[in-house]
Amino acid sequence: MSSIWYFEDVNLFNIMCPHKYKDAGHSHSSKNYKKNDIIYTEDDTADKIYLVSNGKIKIGYINEEGEEIISAILSKGEIFGEKAILGEEKRNEFALALENNTTICPIAADEMLELIRGNRELSLKIYKFIGFRLKRLERRLKLLLFKDTKTRLKEYLNELALDYGYKNTVSGDTVIKHPFTQREIASLIGTSRPTLNILINELQEEGYLQFDRKEIILKKNN
């Protein structure tokens, strides 16, 4: 899964960041953002896709009750706005920078489609990535609708383990070194930071995990 999610064997920086790749044929200018700067909002024209070159991006939407729903927090090496190459004309989500010095590399949707047409390997990876992201989003929405907060946290930790985790060969525990703050994790599972702290403490007391600022250890017996 992680090779699809992060495109480990397809270098998107070479494709989408021509200042790092002299033979790239499309026009390009990376853009820097400060914390809380908006990249696009709902109903904006969907004519570009983006690669996160540095920093973090929050993706979400506003529901009918006016509440902000966070669908993803993306970091270096991930793409967003990808529905522009699937025929989406208007955005149905917003994207904003979560950190200062966030850098985004954009590419026009029609130029990306040309790259896909000329590169079978790239097209396969892009469409696998889109399918994987849609499945993950559908699963997360089901959790938000039908599962209690503790279950949502456990499921999200399993996702983090897939993306950022590795197995400790000595203890058998899963070590997750991740880029997210507790506030961001709380947003992604649809709860408050105080509630998240309570749940983390409960899971630590149960021997389910050990939690540190940038490292989570899932115990092997759980």
TrEMBL record:
The keyword Lipid biosynthesis does not apply. It holds the Pfam family HTH_Crp_2. InterPro entries: cNMP-bd_dom, cNMP-bd_dom_sf, Env_Response_Regulators, HTH_CRP, RmlC-like_jellyroll, WH-like_DNA-bd_sf, WH_DNA-bd_sf. Keywords: DNA-binding, Transcription, Transcription regulation. The keyword Flavoprotein does not apply. CDD domains: CAP_ED (cd00038). SUPFAM superfamilies: cAMP-binding domain-like, Winged helix' DNA-binding domain. Residues 147-222 form the HTH crp-type domain. GO terms for cellular component: cytosol. Signal peptide: none annotated. Residues 12-97 form the Cyclic nucleotide-binding domain. This is Cyclic nucleotide-binding domain-containing protein. It comes from Flavobacterium profundi.
